Amino acid sequence: MTTTPMPVRTVDGVTLPAPGSWRIDPGHAEVAFVGRHFLITKVRGRFTGVRGAVAVAEAPADSSVTVDIDMTTVDSGDATRDEHLRSADLFDVERFPTATFRSTEVRWHGTQGTVTGELTVHGVSRSVELAAEFRGHVRDPWGGDRAVFSATTTIDREAFGLTWNMVLDSGSLLVSREITVEIEVETVLEPH
């Protein structure tokens, strides 16, 4: 007789996902970004084409994350701005259609941790550190087990070759260099 593995476990008194491959559900995943326009107003955007997986290990620190982002799926709520974001001035999606993240280190305590990895955008790779959190587990109506994660980081877009900008009469810049990245993903436990 086979037994269904438990989707969660208790580690140091907190509930965490069970070891296994947790595939990102593209329909319930968002990689969002927030920049400043005129260095004052927040401008938000997101990528809807997100794929990847969280490989949860027996020891949480041995876990890993892989993510691929379809840069053509950028959506900032303004079609003209989105076309500019896709253009050679910025993301240059014809040459660099995919951004990737590959974790290199996971430090975990309770339901929160730090995931360090190589982020590649616009053909440039840089090490970034994500503040990550396990938000919980649910069983969906179709019998799938879902683990929900969120993460945030701040990057310097110019470090990735995204240098387009305009100098205003005041001497300040049109678009901020610092971009906040906000990630929300549902993952589905893949069968053994």
UniProtKB/TrEMBL annotation:
TM segment ranges: none
> What SMART domains does the annotation carry?
YceI
Q: Identify the residues that the record assigns to the Lipid/polyisoprenoid-binding YceI-like domain, covering every copy.
A: 21-188
- Per the similarity annotation, which family is this? Belongs to the UPF0312 family.
Q: Please report the name of this protein according to its UniProt entry.
A: Lipid/polyisoprenoid-binding YceI-like domain-containing protein
Originating organism: Actinocatenispora sera
